Amino acid sequence: MSVTAPVPVLPYRGRFAPSPTGLLHAGSLTTAVGSYLEAKRHGGEWWLRMEDLDPPREMPGAADAILRTLQAFGFEWDGELVYQHDRHERYRAALAQLVAQGDAYGCACTRKEIAAAGQHGADGMVYPGTCRHGVAPGRSARAWRLRVDDSLTAFHDRLQGEYGQHLQSEIGDFVLLRADGFWAYQLAVVVDDIAQGMTDIVRGADLLVSTPRQLWLRQKLGGPAVTHCHLPLMVNAAGEKLSKQTLAPAIDARAAAIELRQALTRLGHAPPTEAGDVAELWQWARDNWQLARVPPGPIVIA
């Protein structure tokens, strides 16, 4: 069984890492608020990273709009503002390390071929390991994958409790460099969290299913242990995660106090009526924030 090691006592450093595939909506704002307050509660730092590694899905101008919205809501971040599009060399070095270690290999399989294997897992189709021992003659590698085994990779989430996966049977060897030439989220997020010295990962519960893969990769790259906390998922009336794909409306920075009050209330922290403007709401929130009051979710937003 592979279980994360105890986390050393280090100065708290967390982050918010939006993807500019759309504007901030109620779900992303709520995650930002929770991660920010958890960092402040521990007297720690809160960094900002723009995860802009998927150009075909990005909305023109979204990155700048996200920054303006965060500033309008009174967020203050520490450290250097990082854009993933500036960090390709780090990702290439990490992949080279994994290949040299024998942990990563080239894969020629198409999505159609993987789907034909018919193995449904925890997060889509399970890769059947077709290219584990080499690409078939006459074919060329299209992507790069990380080898996993079927031991239990588990951890304790500070809000959601115990969670784990048998990666080989539930996920399969997973992609590090995609067939279209773009870096996979799993690789980029782990490389950046290690490089930036993140100690505490606070994010939305939609990413809970990705965490065992990231812990496995972190171990292969020699990264230190971290804690995780997955905040409640915001869903619409149909039970779908709020996102650009589900037509979640962008938050209105002109109504920052109203939006911030709603986000706090969703996180189990209903501010008093006398906390009226943004500054007063933040002060009340910093004074009263307790993770134990946050519901695990999901939370329906009409």
From TrEMBL:
Known function: Catalyzes the tRNA-independent activation of glutamate in presence of ATP and the subsequent transfer of glutamate onto a tRNA(Asp). Glutamate is transferred on the 2-amino-5-(4,5-dihydroxy-2-cyclopenten-1-yl) moiety of the queuosine in the wobble position of the QUC anticodon.
Name listed for the protein in its UniProt record: Glutamyl-Q tRNA(Asp) synthetase
Every copy of the Glutamyl/glutaminyl-tRNA synthetase class Ib catalytic domain together lies at 13-250
Q: How is the cofactor bound?
A: Binds 1 zinc ion per subunit.
**Is-annotated flag, keyword Aminoacyl-tRNA synthetase?**
yes
List positions binding ATP.
Answer: K244
**Where does this protein hold Zn(2+)?**
C107, C109, Y127, C131
State the source organism's domain of life: Bacteria
Binding-site residues, L-glutamate: R15, F16, A17, P18, S19, E51, Y185, R203
Motif 'KMSKS' region in this chain:
241-245
Motif 'HIGH' region: which ranges?
18-28
* Assigned keywords, A-Z: Aminoacyl-tRNA synthetase, ATP-binding, Ligase, Metal-binding, Nucleotide-binding, Protein biosynthesis, Zinc
Its family remark reads:
Belongs to the class-I aminoacyl-tRNA synthetase family. GluQ subfamily.
InterPro entries per the record? Answer: Glu-Q_tRNA(Asp)_Synthase, Glu/Gln-tRNA-synth, Glu/Gln-tRNA-synth_Ib_cat-dom, GluQ/Sye, Rossmann-like_a/b/a_fold
What is the gene name?
gluQ
Q: Which Pfam families match?
A: tRNA-synt_1c
Q: Which cofactor does it need?
A: Zn(2+)
Per the UniProt entry, the Enzyme Commission number(s) are: 6.1.1.-
Query: Per the UniProt entry, what species is this protein from, by scientific name?
Result: Vogesella alkaliphila
